[in-house]
Amino acid sequence: MKNFIYSIVLIASTSIYAQNNIESDQLFLKYEQEYVKNLQSTAGFDYEQAYASFSQHFTDIKAREKTAFTSASEAVASYNNLLQIKATKDAASSNLIQMRSDLLKKYDGMLIYQTLKTRAQAK
Fold first, then answer.
1. Looking at residue 10, what DSSP letter applies?
2. Which residues make Cβ contacts (< 8 Å) with residue 29, sequence separation at least 6?
3. Distance (Å) of CA 72 to CA 50, 57, 61, 85
4. pLDDT in tens, 41-85
5. How far is the C-alpha of 46 from the C-alpha of 106, rounded, in Å?
């Protein structure tokens, strides 16, 4: 029974120490900034809007050659805009995923999530 209690105290103190350690980790702080920036970003919405705008010009699903674009250059410009917005969105997501992957080498995923959640509630 005594060993069980010591084990619980050890686990609790380790968790508290780990959270204090993660809160001062520069990588975590950068990740937190990117995470918040990504949440506030309109990149996902912009992509959905661009995709909807591009897709609405295809009036006949069976005949892909028939579109509502006024010219080929308008279609190309619309498609290029869609690709550019997607690339921006993907780059931001990729950066966030890479940072999280690096953090997971040092910390538990649940600790990262709980620390983000705790710090967001404190702000």
1. H
2. none
3. 17, 12, 18, 20
4. 898 899 999 999 998 988 877 776 788 899 999 999 999 999 999
5. 34
